[in-house]
Amino acid sequence: MLNNKTKYTNLIKDEAKRLGFLSCGISKAKFLEEEAPRLERWLNNNMNGQMDYMQNHFDKRLDPTKLVEDSKSVISLLLNYYPEQQQINDTYKVSKYAYGYDYHHVIKSKLKQLSQFIQEHIGEVSGRAFVDSAPVLDKAWAAKSGLGWIGKHSNLLTQKVGSFYFIAELIIDLELDYDTPVTDHCGTCTACIDACPTQAIVDPYVVDGSKCISYFTIELKDQLPNTMKSKFDDWIFGCDVCQDVCPWNKFSKPHNQPLFNPDPDLLTMTKKDWQEITEDVFKKVFQKSAVKRTKYSGLTRNIKFLNS
């Protein structure tokens, strides 16, 4: 007969699957010993650029019990976003994760449903949901709970479906059965390191965030540096190069989440269309997309930079 811990673990994983998550793994909520020196080194080398928020809440990033009192388990969840159709060739490029509806809203809604399910079927369980908006090292937790390994491009990778998915967490005060990490399958491959247009992968498994095209096109609010001229490979929001060249992404399968489908105009826009984009078109194509983060002014700045 199953003990309660195993029974609850199975219930949660089955419900996560029913809600459309790609996979669900669970690890014990405790201090991330291995990640602490890595994060400290990364920050000391200013690899966060102007992302000052990365320096905040250092202790909370490494210890979930400081985020959720009496927490026992970190439930990590993956949600596929790999699109069935992609932009035309020879155009300005938008990262695939931002094609459709802003993932924060889609995932938050699913996490809310999972939390309600836990309350109804298990009982009074306290916790918090996290989607890339709080000091949580989501890739570290996903790797700890056996959902994949962190590749040389610093993204989570799985043998079955590559890396085109979002990661989210529920941190709760309920003890569950814990999963174990999987082994690294990057081997001697350096495809991502060799392909990075700005050499942002400074060492295997270490990405200098301040050199990444995603950082320049989304996070950096200042003028784009002239030293980066002609290095953006036509990316105007985010960058997928390190994922696109990864051999494991040959196994990516299209998502089945209608909200992640793009506005049809996005897929057919030419460079000329982008250069002439008006604020109205921007609002129509990206009304619910994560691209709104960079605003119309940020996107047109990026387009002009590629043209100058």
Automatic annotation (TrEMBL):
Binding site for cob(II)alamin: 61, 132, 156, 167, 214, 239-240
Protein localization: Cytoplasm
Domain 4Fe-4S ferredoxin-type: start-end pairs: 174-205
Cofactor(s) this protein cannot do without: cob(II)alamin; [4Fe-4S] cluster
Major enzyme class: oxidoreductase
DNA repair listed as a keyword: no
Cofactor binding remark: Binds 2 [4Fe-4S] clusters per monomer.
Residues holding tRNA: 221
Matching Gene3D superfamilies: 3.30.70.20
Residues the entry annotates as binding [4Fe-4S] cluster 1: 186, 189, 192, 246
Major localization listed first in the record, in broad terms: cytoplasm
Function as written in the Swiss-Prot or TrEMBL entry: Catalyzes the conversion of epoxyqueuosine (oQ) to queuosine (Q), which is a hypermodified base found in the wobble positions of tRNA(Asp), tRNA(Asn), tRNA(His) and tRNA(Tyr).
Protein name, as recorded: Epoxyqueuosine reductase
Organism of this sequence: Olleya sediminilitoris
Origin organism lineage: Bacteria, Pseudomonadati, Bacteroidota, Flavobacteriia, Flavobacteriales
Name of the encoding gene: queG
